[in-house]
Amino acid sequence: MEPQSQNLKTIPLLSLGRFHISEEYGFLLPNPLMPLLTCQFLQSYREQRLAHLVLSFITMGYVWQKGETQPKEVLPRNLALPFVEVSRNLGIPPILVHADLVLTNWTTRDPERPLEIRNLDVIFSFPGEESLRGFILVTVLVEKAAVPGIKALVQAVNAILQPSQNSLLQALQRLRLCIQDITRTLGQMHDYVDPDIFYAVIRIFLSGWKDNPAMPVGLIYEGVSPEPLKYSGGSAAQSTVLHAFDEFLGICHSKESADFLHRMREYMPPSHKAFIEEIHSTPSLRDHILSSGNGQLLTAYNQCVEALAELRSYHITVVTKYLITAATKAKGRRLNYVPGPPLALEERGTGGTVVLSFLKSVRDKTLEAILHQSD
């Protein structure tokens, strides 16, 4: 048996450093605030999109943590500087946008199973629990439902550039079916999102600091600008889908609506905005159909326009339920989840529009695009 003194020689001397214990602070983590984050190690486009998602959620949670009555006026430099840096790299504003909340913020539970809401989950979340999850994921499914329509646009444009009336007719028929499927998919919102929770809890975290009476001067991004900056909140108008459909079908909106919609394009990834602009630069579908004298093409075009107007009408009913009616109910019985929203916000969307008048205008202008053989 070896002497005890020899065994002790093999045991390392006890030190606090080996256990991440500070000589000065003990078990406390010294200076626990994060160092300034750097974007230099973000190698790919996907990594930068994910970084923007993370930073946008932290930002919205920080600014609105005490509700609309006490928003933060300054975004700390440790958050503001990396957020602005990654935003400039991506070409999108330093605020939560549709490309964050929806396009980047989803994952499948089982990659082998179909892309349906029971097999989906969000990556990041705000207060709102299942209603927030439903709001995000139904919108994810709306974007997925649009895929055949996006492909149909490409087919149709190419059928005009390299004339093929049969291919164009087929593309228009596919587009109509796609728009109708988008409308049906949007209907799932009623199954998964509670209007009271959306209005009183969720909506605040999607709100921006432009055209928002709760933050009339905007938000100071510390270390970026001494003056407050103004950015619109997340909005369905930041989705590329309906912009692309409008450009392809030649829908002309009122100046006020068109100005807002074009401003929302600045909140899209630049490549998505470029897709819309590419469609805009192609030969006019309406002129092509009228000059062709093809009655089948004219009918198929009008069916697309009617389906798009029906989608917009349905969107109005959804917004009425989740914003207008919910606001009226909230006045009557203040919910305990968060402080009641200011009266000035009750009829505004998170993007800052007076929402119903805007939606009705774009719906009515869509219907005006119906073609007649004598046009």
TrEMBL record:
Question: Could you tell me the EC number(s) of this protein?
Answer: 1.13.11.-
Q: Which domain of life is it from?
A: Eukaryota
Q: Which Pfam families match?
A: IDO
Catalytic activity of the protein = L-tryptophan + O2 = N-formyl-L-kynurenine
Claim: Isomerase is one of the keywords in the record: no
EC class (word)? oxidoreductase
Enumerate the UniProt keywords alphabetically.
Dioxygenase, Heme, Immunity, Iron, Metal-binding, Oxidoreductase, Tryptophan catabolism
Question: What does the function comment of this entry state?
Answer: Catalyzes the first and rate limiting step of the catabolism of tryptophan along the kynurenine pathway. Involved in immune regulation.
Family listed: Belongs to the indoleamine 2,3-dioxygenase family.
Q: Which PANTHER family match?
A: INDOLEAMINE 2,3-DIOXYGENASE (PTHR28657), INDOLEAMINE 2,3-DIOXYGENASE 2 (PTHR28657:SF4)
User: What protein name is recorded for this chain?
Assistant: Indoleamine 2,3-dioxygenase 2
Name the species this protein comes from. Answer: Acinonyx jubatus
